[in-house]
Each structure stands twice: as C-alpha cells, then as structure tokens.
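Lecture 7 notes: from sequence to structure.

We start with a single chain of 114 residues. Read the sequence below before looking at the structure.
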Amino acid sequence: QVHLVESGGGLVRPGESLRLSCAASESIIGIVTMGWYRQAPGKERELVAVSGDRTTYADSVKGRFTISRDNYKKSVYLQMNSLKPEDTAVYYCRLRNTEGYVYWGQGTQVTVSS
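Now the structure, written as tokens:
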C-alpha cells in the first residue's frame, strides 16, 4: 500500500525553482509532522525541512526553500527557489503520526545542472 505520493521533481538550471508535493493516503490519521529529506549520491539522507509544532529548515536551504502544509488535504509542499547544483538529490517526503508511525514516500529526483 502506498501511503505517501510525491510529485514535482525534475531537471532545472541553477537559479530556477521547483515545487514538490506530497499527499498522504486517507488511511493515515493523527498526523503530527510532515517534512522533506534528501539524499545525494554517496551521502546520508538529511533533513531539508519539517513542519510540526514548529518549522525547521536545514541551514543550507534557509531563505531559499519554503515548506507548507494543507492539513485538510493531508499534503505537504516544498517550494524550492534559487536552486543550486548541490541541491541535486532524491527528495523524500516523511510523515509521523500520533502513534509514532513514520511513513516515507518513494522519492522524487531533483537535478540542478546547467
């Protein structure tokens, strides 16, 4: 069963923008946090931005990326502006609910290259 569906990745040039979307299935209830992580080749998965009681951003994306949520649609978005080659990675949506279950999306590729 697919719990999180992501979309919006792609190939862009440095300085351009992308918007990622992630929608949770109706079966998931009690959502506490929704966020985005990324994993570049040869690197560990890292936090990009998380929305919960407060919003947290990685230092590397502050001022360029914005996370937003639509609780009614059980969705989270990541607006990425001023993209850099070092933002190239597979981006994963992550959700945690009140029971402590953690769900991951399948990942969407973001490539920033001239």
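The two ends are 37 Å apart (CA to CA). Keep this in mind for problem set 3.
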